[in-house]
């Protein structure tokens, strides 16, 4: 069995801590095992259960929390995005999360070029606010969308452009911080310092002077060295001086201290002008060694970045639909063999012309080194931006490997002088081979810091191999006079190597610094000073004792239930991975905590986090909670149903099943499918509510309601009489604030001339431009005009249309059970956790469609959530090959028409639009990359000038937005960007394919959005 997370000897009165925090602060306090478990990990291989989690609302809250913690002897661990790779953000401590409230800009001085911020502000958010002033904070870490300034300073983070701008330590001007005694000290220019900061500065100065020969002998002379404390502020050893004028800045002592010396209250940062122009030269190499050897020559041209991407990563990107097109823009010849490596060489400045000359110089340089014609010139800004995104996603692309063996970060940022880079990488590659593994190389060639992670299985022999590889890597670093810890910090992973790097005297001095700052070891104990062994399995997230509880999931997760070969990365056959949860646990464990889901920029993931900023309403928080439940690490009351427990309900409650994580999470964590598993288990435990039944069986009873005279009108009264709506809210939990879809007496089925029309065999269709049009319940019963419009468009373009309807035999069988006569995708059952019913109904549809799919007949749908159930969930329901064939043919109307148009087969002529078109993509449409076809198609309408609304989820998400307990969150999601964008464009057509999206738009803006089929039909 797994060790219970809180089995460590904690001589702490957790209850008293929580009580005092609740009484004496305004912050949020969490002590339950699931909440603490969500803060037990960062992006490393480690895990430690916090004593409690605190989310402060104000600076006073933090001051009070520090005082309470000190009085009770509870260690404190400040936390930003929790994206550290070395375990520095894990600890048995009071974890304080700065990211929800403590994230303001305090002062911006344009004249002096600095900004002062609270530590929880995210780098990208800061830079967005600076852009209007032509400035930026240039420490551009790959995790810029998640990393906080506090965390970046804590780790002394470094960006891709550190060759031009330096690391955090070169760009922090001052830090105000709480000391362990609760006092706030101002750390800045040493010469002007006073009070506690000066006293501490004097102490360190004395140590540094005593140890000057040791510092000179042991501090590596490279830009990238982040180990230990920056004792060298008084005797600078870095290639790039910490300050431009040679002065000593005491805040640099805190940079890289990993929360062990003081708690940052505010940070003053040096800003840089945003370069007006950038150009990129991508050098293609047939030899990896040559690429590494070239870096030392390329840097002499004065680039702002030289970044490596190796062949494995290029191939991984080429196999990923989101990255393929972009990565191929970097290749000299995409149809030839993939190069062994590419170097992205960036030049930036105020004028474009000199930069273009630099590109020419790069080409000449490469020709001089025997590589003429090896450079792809990329002056285009948008191409550059896309390529940088792929480079930044590099690690995440690698981490998508399925199976227990994972690329492990522990020697991945050793820094060596450039002239030794080629020999170092060659020697380390040989070390990997010796231990039956392989490394994928990428990142900062300009500064000799290449990222590389051998694939290790920490549940088996990973710890032993990790030790062996680390020993050999360290010998190489020493041989080449490099730094063992060059970017990601020390944490639990590199702490033991600090004494190796600096020797005993400096190590002792670092301990004295810690003692001077924090005599009672309050701040993040066990990091930098007195660290554990890196391979102490009791700190691992997946120790050899890790066990998953056996369970039978409702869906088929066998594709995740595999193991991999660390050298070839080939995976075994589905179902052979040995997961007692039949692949579900391994799918959940794909989350490596990189925090990419904590984003607010374009795209969708994760709508509930965007609104709440709560870790529990984040894909990562959900995956962690699931992992802990499936491995029996939570205090769950009903142990027979960990998956359906209240702890999982709490995290799944606001998941809108938007499927954004399926596409945008770099490792493909598919929380929407996991929510189906949860619902299935949960509803088995607690039973179905009246509302569940009303939603689930809608496709069954819709035909009955519409066929009884006057019944639709009677039911629609609910939308006009508030007391009725209130009564329904009280009885069923459907919000009275919402209007409900309007029932109709005449539906699509009664309106099409005869039920025998639109009935063709696959053979008939394959001879006559045939397509299948799936009439889903929502469009058939509530908005039949959409189906009519789609028919008009398809008929006008000369397609013969088959509409799936059940045969008489099927109808007769169903009438016995009072079922409707139309096929259904089963979506409403899935939303209510009735997986068996969903399988039953979806199987009928798949059976009907399979012969059409086998004849390559396109299967078209209008409602994205229904169509993508056919394309996605149908694949994990055990339907076999038929489901795959149907999935391959399933597409939205616009996907089909856009493809036909591209192939020159679409015979349609549209009239000019009288007003422009704004398009909102349904989440599932975005998840399957089906938004661009809609825009391409709309462009065929003259003067439509279609524009995409940059929006996340509309917040309606099927029945979510109708539910009384979710109405406020639903509205907030809509107000995040969708509704404001629509209000700003009163004279546009609003096009939205999702029924519930249109409903949300109507409720929130009183604007009538239409399905794309209607816009197309209206302009014929
Ligand atoms: C995919 C991936 C790519 C990465 N790329 C890079 C990269 O390009 N360059 C790079 O340098 N790193 C990189 N990292 C590592 C990590 O993202 C960075 O170190 C980042 O700056 C950490 O920020 P955070 O907000 O997540 O900090 P956290 O992990 O939350 O915290 C980091 C440290 O700072 C301390 N801390 C946080 N707030 C405070 C405070 N208020 N007072 C005192 N101490 C505090 C914490 O205790 C902890 O020790 C990468 C990580 C991943 C997963
Ligand atoms: S859910 Fe995906 S994006 Fe979020 S932390 Fe986990 S792996 Fe990263
Ligand atoms: S499905 Fe959507 S709401 Fe749910 S975790 Fe994924 S991104 Fe978040």
Descriptive account of the structure:
The protein is an alpha/beta fold. One iron/sulfur cluster binds at residues 605-608, 619, 622, 655-661, 671-672.
Describe the secondary-structure layout:
Blueprint: H1 14-24, E1 28-30, H2 33-38, E2 52-55, H3 59-72, E3 76-79, E4 94-97, E5 105-109, E6 114-117, H4 123-131, E7 135-136, H5 149-155, H6 162-165, E8 172-178, E9 184-187, H7 195-210, H8 212-218, H9 251-254, E10 263-270, E11 272-273, E12 277-285, H10 288-298, E13 305-310, H11 311-318, H12 324-328, E14 341-349, H13 352-368, E15 375-378, H14 381-392, H15 394-398, E16 406-407, H16 421-434, E17 441-444, E18 449-452, E19 455-456, H17 462-479, H18 497-517, H19 584-588, H20 607-612, H21 619-630, H22 646-652, H23 660-664, H24 671-686, H25 690-696, H26 698-707, H27 711-716, H28 722-732, H29 748-751, H30 762-767, E20 770-774, H31 777-781, H32 784-796, E21 800-802, H33 808-816, H34 827-831, H35 835-854, E22 859-861, H36 864-871, H37 881-889, E23 890-892, H38 893-902, E24 917-920, H39 923-927, H40 932-938, E25 947-948, H41 967-976, H42 978-983, E26 989-992, H43 995-1005, H44 1012-1018
Parallel strand pairs: 2-4, 3-4, 20-21, 20-22, 22-23, 24-25, 24-26
Antiparallel strand pairs: 1-2, 5-6, 6-10, 7-11, 8-9, 8-10, 12-14, 12-15, 13-14, 13-17, 16-19, 17-18
Helix pairs in contact: 1-3, 7-18, 10-16, 16-17, 21-22, 22-24, 32-44, 35-37, 38-40
The protein binds flavin-adenine dinucleotide and iron/sulfur cluster (SF4) (2 copies).
The site of one iron/sulfur cluster has 15 residues, from α20, α21, α23 and α24.
